[in-house]
Design goal:
With 65 residues, this protein is an all-alpha fold. 52% of the residues lie in helices and 0% in strands. The chain is built from 3 helices and no strands. The two termini are 31 Å apart.
Length: 65
C-alpha cells in the first residue's frame, strides 16, 4: 500500500510542478570541461557491449561500492 501511495504522490507532484519547463538548454552549445568533459568523451567512444559488461561488478566488494 505504501508503494502505491508513493507512486501516486510522485505522479501528482511531477504533473503539478512540471520540473524542467522553461529550460531551453541546447546540449551542443554547452561548454563542458574537467571531469565532465572527460566522461562525455569516454561515453561517446564506448561500444554497446562495453556497457553491458560494465554492469557486472569486478569483485564482490565492487557490488557494494
Amino acid at each position: 500500500m505504501g508503494t502505491i501511495a508513493a507512486l501516486a504522490t510522485g505522479l501528482v507532484a511531477i504533473n503539478l510542478f512540471r520540473l524542467g519547463d522553461g529550460v531551453h538548454a541546447d546540449p551542443s552549445r554547452l561548454n563542458t570541461s574537467g571531469d565532465a568533459g572527460q566522461y562525455i568523451q569516454q561515453g561517446e567512444h564506448q561500444q554497446w557491449w562495453e556497457f553491458l559488461t560494465n554492469l557486472v561488478p569486478h569483485s564482490f566488494f565492487g557490488a557494494f561500492a
